[in-house]
Amino acid sequence: MANHRADRVSEDIQRELTAILREMKDPRLHNGIISVVRCDMAHDLSYCKVYISSMNSLDTAKEAVKALKNASGFIRRELGVRLKLRYAPALAFEATDSIEYSANISRILNDIEHKNEERQKAQQEEEQNEDNIE
Question: Is-above-0.85 flag for pTM?
Fold first, then answer.
């Protein structure tokens, strides 16, 4: 049976972590666009793995993870207060390049779409030229 409470708490933690990140004053967190991509919660709600990504690069995300590890006690306390949890979960932060990866996929798809449009225009021009010749 799926643990729905862990899923709900995971979503709540992701939302509150995003708000906490905006309020923190560490310059390593404001070098680029930092985002909480996903939170994986243990079934007993004692441990949470948080995936952090940056729009700039994986290195920026790794710097943000270092800052978050330094402030993990503060973040854990804030989560406990904001979510009114009896025991705030232990947080483990991990850098991921998922935003950069998805932006690359989007760029590739846009390039393919642009090439298809150019190909269709070229075909239409050829058909018009053939009609004009006849």
Answer: no
